[in-house]
Each structure stands twice: as C-alpha cells, then as structure tokens.
Amino acid sequence: MANNKTIKKVLNLLDENYPKDIKCYLDHENPWQLLIATILSAQCTDDRVNIVTKDLFRKYTSVKDFAEADISELEQDIRSTGFYRNKAKNIIGCCRTLLEQHDGQVPKDIEKLVKLQGVGRKTANVIRGNIYNIPSIVVDTHVKRISKKLGFTEYTDPVKIEFDLMEILPKEHWIRYNTQVIAHGRAICTARSPKCERCFLLPYCKTGLENMINVIDE
Predict the structure, then answer these.
(1) Binding site annotation covers 95?
(2) Do residues 94 and 43 lie in contact, with contact meaning Cβ atoms separated by under 8 Å?
(3) What does the pLDDT look like over 134-185, one tens digit per residue?
(4) 152, 168 in Cβ contact below 8 A?
(5) How many Cα atoms within 13 Å fall on the side-chain side of residue 30?
(6) CATH number of the domain enclosing 190
(7) What is the mean pLDDT of the chain?
(8) Is 189 annotated as contributing to ligand binding?
(9) Which GO terms describe its molecular function (predicted)?
C-alpha cells in the first residue's frame, strides 16, 4: 500500500493538473435525472448516456412519468445503453419506490438510496457527492484501475476499494478524486493503451514503471 507521503504527492499532482471543482460527466437538471442517468451508465459510456437522456428526459418529464412508463417502450428508448431490459425494469421500480416511500424525492441517506431498485453504492455516492455535496467516493472503472496501479488498494471489489480510499484519502479530496481520476483515465491512463511516457504520476505507479522498462528492453 502507498504511504502517506506518496498519497499526498499524488493528490497534489492531481490538483495541479485537473480542476478541483466537482464535475459530473452525466448531464442532468435535477436529482432524479442524475439518478436515472447513473443507472443507465452501468456498462455504458457517459457520452452515450448523455445522447440517450437528451431525448429521454424530454419524453419523461417527471418521476411519475417513469414510474408509469410502459416497460417495452422504455426498453426501446434506452436500448443503445446496453442491458436495457434490466435497466428499464430498475428505473420503473426505482421511480415507483421514490413516489411510494419518498414523496418523489431522491433521498440523501446512503442506506435509503441503496434500497432503491438498480442502485448500488456507486450510484448512491454519485448522488450524495454531486447533488448533496456529501463527501463520497465513487468507484468507477477508472478509479478502480488507477487506484490499484498507484498502490492505494490491493482489491478489485469496488466496495472494498471504496473503504480503502476512505481510510487513506483526506475527506476533502473524496469527491474530486473521482472526477480527477476519470479525467486522467480518459486522457492519459487509458485502459487499452496507457500513455505512461506522458504520465505525471509515473514515479508513483508500479505498473507504469514496469511498462516503461519493458519498452526500453524491447
């Protein structure tokens, strides 16, 4: 595991290279739209979700509209996001619960959020961090991959990674760590072909250093 000195240096470098303000990559105008967009984002890119929700939120303009949606029609509306049958079922079930138990409002309590259909800790933390500004760590594919490379965790399970990061990162970094790491994962530390030679985090990345040594050896 990375030591405190390394963690501090990594966080400082992230702050120097990426904005400190919270940036949500999913387009939304209110809490329930972000909730639905996050459910749709499972195994799908944010860009694709934003394309779909642009029309989706014009067609369904309230939690009630989604709760009363025809499931077959909703499936077709969200088909391009993948796993559309499960997602449609979850969205309708989630919105029905919002109406029945929460007066149509999206709760901020994580225990209440994860009881909603289709909502796990990742989605709950997206809502808590972006809507309610509650310090939360969102473990998406970028955070999972890059945190492991940096030695911030040894796990692959998102919940275990979340708790590891909560333990070692200062609370004021919890929300922006996710958005900064997403930016880094998109621009430099991509999954298929990481640009290690351009990476300012290279000195703290065991995987990156090994990749550079292999390139030199070749």
Answers:
(1) no
(2) no
(3) 999 999 999 999 999 999 999 999 999 999 999 999 999 999 999 999 999 9
(4) yes
(5) 9
(6) 1.10.1670.10
(7) 94
(8) yes
(9) 4 iron, 4 sulfur cluster binding; class I DNA-(apurinic or apyrimidinic site) endonuclease activity; DNA binding; DNA N-glycosylase activity; metal ion binding
The residue to which tokens 């703290």 are assigned? 204
> Residues 66, 116: one domain?
yes
The catalytic site residues sit at: 122, 140
Binding site annotation covers 196? yes
Q: Which of 109, 130, 151 is the last residue of a domain?
A: 130
Structural domains of the chain, count: 2
Domain annotation covers residue 26: no
Residue positions counted in the chain: 218
**Residues 6+ positions from 197 with CB-CB distance below 8 Å:** 212
Q: Per the confidence metrics, is the pTM higher than 0.85?
A: yes
Q: Please check whether residue 163 is in contact with residue 157, taking contact to mean a CB–CB distance below 8 angstroms.
A: no
89 part of a folded domain: yes
Burial category of 113 from C-beta neighbours within 10 Å (exposed 0-12, middle 13-18, buried 19 and up): buried
Based on the domain organization, do 42 and 110 belong to the same domain? yes
**Cα–Cα distance measured from residue 105 to residue 45, given in angstroms and rounded to the nearest whole number:** 26
Percent of the chain whose predicted confidence (pLDDT) is above 90: 91
